[in-house]
Amino acid sequence: MAPRFTVSYYVRAADEAEARARALDIALEQTVEIPRDVVPKGYVEDEILGKLEALVKDPDGRPGYLASISYSEDDVGGDFLQFLNIVFGNSSIKPGLKVENIGLSKGILALCPGPKHGIAGLRQRAGIGAQPLLMSAIKPVGLSSAELAQRAHDFALGGMHFVKDDHGLVDQRTSPFAERLAACVDAVGDANAKGGGQASFVPNITASAKELFERAIMAQEAGAGGVMISPALAGYDVIHTLASDPDFTLPIVSHPAFSGANVVSPETGFSHRCFYGALQRLMGADAAIYPNFGGRFGFTREECQSIAKACADDMGGPKAIVPAPGGGMNLGRVPEMRDAYGNDVMYLIGGALLQDTDIVSASRRIVEAVAR
Amino acid sequence: MAPRFTVSYYVRAADEAEARARALDIALEQTVEIPRDVVPKGYVEDEILGKLEALVKDPDGRPGYLASISYSEDDVGGDFLQFLNIVFGNSSIKPGLKVENIGLSKGILALCPGPKHGIAGLRQRAGIGAQPLLMSAIKPVGLSSAELAQRAHDFALGGMHFVKDDHGLVDQRTSPFAERLAACVDAVGDANAKGGGQASFVPNITASAKELFERAIMAQEAGAGGVMISPALAGYDVIHTLASDPDFTLPIVSHPAFSGANVVSPETGFSHRCFYGALQRLMGADAAIYPNFGGRFGFTREECQSIAKACADDMGGPKAIVPAPGGGMNLGRVPEMRDAYGNDVMYLIGGALLQDTDIVSASRRIVEAVAR
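^ inputs. structure came back:
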């Protein structure tokens, strides 16, 4: 028998009998996808078919149960997307079903070496100790590369550790990718030379499958300090592929664009901590952006804290990464944020700084308040 | 001004004022992602910023409004993923918001040439006229390539037009991709030679970004009759890239694995017709698999019919594709299915046939019943 990994699902059900029937259905659906009575005896039934390992009332008080189902590493076949497909492929389409947690096995940990840098590597790159990291975004789409580079310069001079592209900046004619990359790396370098900082520029390389990998190489060769990818758009394997590539050395920032439906509905998709925490680490992201509580989105403080915890928990292998809450951060909220997240966090601050006529000073004020 | 495309969103709201505020927020969030008061005057405000074009009470009686928002082709920058990002990137994370429809513009149609074959091409390949197509899946994972090829042979001899891999078959040691591909193409070829049919084998090529394209070429060179991809796992650009590649000539079947959260929640994600119909055509899929009503999933007859309609509607460019409902099909349901779908459909029939000890005869009975 091959080692098995486990997935724990919240299953809406009126009683235990219904929950058990639904759980056994998941075990079939996610593996053999044929009626139970025609599952071949022997290897397929004993090894490949999912096994219901435990079934308990939902500890969070939802109207259902937690079903823990184990799957064989043999079914994964060394394929990261097939791993995700076993976790939640077809069952994602069934209502009242949510992935709560994933319990790893040795083979899955070998398949998912995790991020190259993690929070420790990002801090080292930024030249700081055990304090929060800060990241800003240049925007909006429609500005020229020169205008965007000026913003990158100002954020860097103001002390931001990372300056990233807005996730909507791709290769628009107003600011083509290669031109913006060169201009922003230069601008951040100038600011570092002037101010003595170690800011890094992080371009958005989300693009078609082939272009994404070309842009990753361009970013590395141009002297960028990381790359950003939206995995829910570009595919759940691209970060995994880049993080596993020994020739690619930059940190990877994961952006949540297009991922919302996987999380916001209380009874479908994934738990917040599993999607924005565990999955990001398994893919190999070094920083996971998600919407902060109290901002423009509806996540609660507890949901955000559960993500931060999942970024740092001992997974038996992958390095701790940095949770990067975006939205809703400003000077006045620094104490509240410190209370919620402690030091192991990267604050993503964009719009609030652009509302100031002096981006450099506005950045400095927030950098100082956070470091205090 | 560049031409604009429009997206119509269902917006949950207590009254028109709230709906308008939420709609204007979408227009900001999906384009400039900065506070309204700092949107640069001129090109950014006039061209890039989303525009609220219409706001009406939801015609389907849900507690909210339909907001139609237009976006500039300039913001897309010729990038298919950026197009999807504008449609629903960050706003996917906001609850009570659903993409209902997308209204195309000339530039988007140029970016999305659509499928190469469509339903007409699939029928031509199968050698049939205006009747329903039939597809079966070889499974389960864990069988050897020889055993799976035997099933492929029997389905083909029984008259199925397409025989596909189960979407969980990748490169497991029990049936490595290359070995299974060769064995199944051979087996289906033998059955065609014996029975006079024109069945095609369709391997699952969902894999890491680089392997997926290698397997597409392998499939074409080996004589497969199509490929299957799960875009919600592999990324929303891979089908688009393959369908746009003049050197790749096989039909593409889209599988819904991992996509469920985008659709099943009534107030998040996409409408059924938009996700499993319109988006699949824009990507360039020739056939779109989705869960049939009355099967193991919860879609209603009306939702399934709306998908089928969206596969065939005049979009101003992309060919009509074939809706491929899976699950719940058997001999007894043929009249009900004919009534729901008419002729422009591809029935995906798997488990029910495997429950028969004689797959060839079981396939023949369903093929005859559907063609009658």
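The mean pLDDT of chain A is 96. Chain A touches chain B through 89 residues (CB under 8 Å).
thumbs up if we can close this ticket
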